[in-house]
Design brief:
The complex is a heterodimer of chains A (293) and B (236). With 293 residues, chain A is mostly helical. Chain A contains twelve helices and two strands; from the N terminus they run H-H-H-H-E-E-H-H-H-H-H-H-H-H. The longest helix of chain A is centred in the first third of the chain and has 31 residues, at 2-32. Chain B is α/β, with parallel strands linked by helices and 236 residues long. Helix content of chain B is 39%, strand content 28%. Chain B contains ten helices and ten strands. In chain B, the strands form two sheets. Chain B has a six-stranded mixed beta sheet, with helices on both faces. In chain B, strands 2-1-4-5 form a four-stranded antiparallel beta sheet. In chain B, strand 1 and strand 2 (16-27) form a beta hairpin. The chains are: A mainly alpha (293), B alpha/beta (236). Chain A binds chain B through residues 162, 165-166, 168-169, 172-173, 175-184, 234, 287, 289-292, and chain B through 50, 52, 70-72, 75-76, 80-83, 87-92, 96, 99-101, 103-104, 132, 134-136, 148-149, 151-152. Chain B: InterPro entries: AAA+_ATPase, ABC_transporter-like_ATP-bd, ABC_transporter-like_CS, BCAA_Transport_ATP-bd_LivF, P-loop_NTPase. Chain B: It holds the Pfam family ABC_tran. Chain B: Residues 4-236 form the ABC transporter domain. Chain B: It comes from Geodermatophilus aquaeductus.
Chain lengths: 293, 236
Amino acid sequence: MGKFVQLVVDGLSTGSVYAALALAIVLVHQATGLINFAQGGMAVLSAYVAWWLTNQGLPLIVAILLAIVFSVVFGALVERWLMRRFERGDPDTAVVVTIGLLTLITGFAGWLWTYNNQQFPSLFPLDTVSFLGVSVSVRSLGTTAVIVVAMLLLQGLFVGTKLGLALRAVAINPQSAAFSGLPVGRLLMVGWGLAAALGAVAAALVAPQLTLTPGMLDNALVYALAAVILGGLTSPIGVVVAAWIIGILENLAAVYVPFIGFDLKVAVPFILIFVVLIVRPQGLFGRKTVVRV
Amino acid sequence: MTLLELEGVTASYGPVQVLDGVSLSVPEEGAVGILGANGAGKTTTLRAISGTVRAGGRITFDGKDIRGMRPDQVAALGIAHVPEGRGTLGDLTVRDNLRVGAYLRKDRKGVDQDIDYCLDLFPNLQERITSNASALSGGEQQMLAVGRAIMSKPRLMLLDEASLGLAPSTAKNVYDAIRRLRIESGIAMVVVEQNANLAFTLVDSATVLETGRNALTGTSAELRGMDEIRRAYLGG
């Protein structure tokens, strides 16, 4: 029983990191209708910025906050100077551009900081606390708590604020949004900036555990996409719950399903993607898009 | 007092010249129709005004040169474009569509009052208020598109083919409501319409476009009396 709880809590923690990336993907999708494959790469870049700042002697929390600010600006600039050229064209082209951006950022980070693993200090103490008879790391709890707060803020933004409504309106129909006076270009930049900030938070949370490398979040991106599909592209709460389910199932399957083991556990999210796409394409929590002609 | 003035407006899509010197004058609280065959440049004229197509010539609104402005800047001046095909925001509820229309307004109370006004003007929307716009019928979507324009408290509304694809009785309902809106609000209007009979129930004057130019301009009464207009646009 102790082992089971331990696996569940660890799964929750890794699931939270997938959740943060998934939330960023949902945010960009809500604001622009695109899936940004470079979301993880952009997040890694901000982690490098934080790491570089701590090496200059800044306290960790200050370095992370500055890296988040950097990410907001970087995300907005990527939208303004790169994505905007493709936003009016075929969406598939824009998606391929984000894949290219991922490759570019990874290469850039490797060129600047090498591909060696760098130690990234942890925001939370390495202590453990006892919980239901098992010891749980403070880092797992802290990571999960940060993600829950981010999720609630994002849900509140979309559902409860004028800015959130405006971001959704721009994503659905930029021209109609402009006819109502919405500054479409500025709103797209805000959407990309906010998403990049979320990615920065995810990277800062996971970097101590994975150690910092240019491809640190490549795997996490696959899990995040699985969470996005499982949870539904329209629901921040949905994708977080889905990311947790994936994190937990992956851990449990590795231990309790002998033929999967640790080698095959990466297959778990893919199996989930297939099943969900076949059975419930709008995701577990997403709303079905009704097209009426 | 003239609110909107177009002089010698030109526009092209690539090498194809669509507008070749269109003029139009809309007085404060007035309503002007634009009639013409398919491809005559009716929709493009509206798009030139709202800044969605690049135009030459002169376009002034309330004495201010608005040619070359972005659509959201034009909207902020008080021009609401109800586009062909309605442009409702499918994944948002009826209420959220109306709230998006009021994006630039700061007066919360006034916004709530205007939502109530829209629902009074278009009672069909009342029972669909929490439905997604994509689930509405064509007529209801048209009503919502007009409602969204009302919510921005415009001084001028650009209506593009509000009757397109609607059953005749639905089209009449929509135009009845717009006429009531015009009387009660004093919003000036530019009305593009294939169905000239419907247009004449709303506008004071109209211009007929042919291949991107004004072929005829006159009051509704004058135009209705002309044989060529009757033959071409009024069904005999």
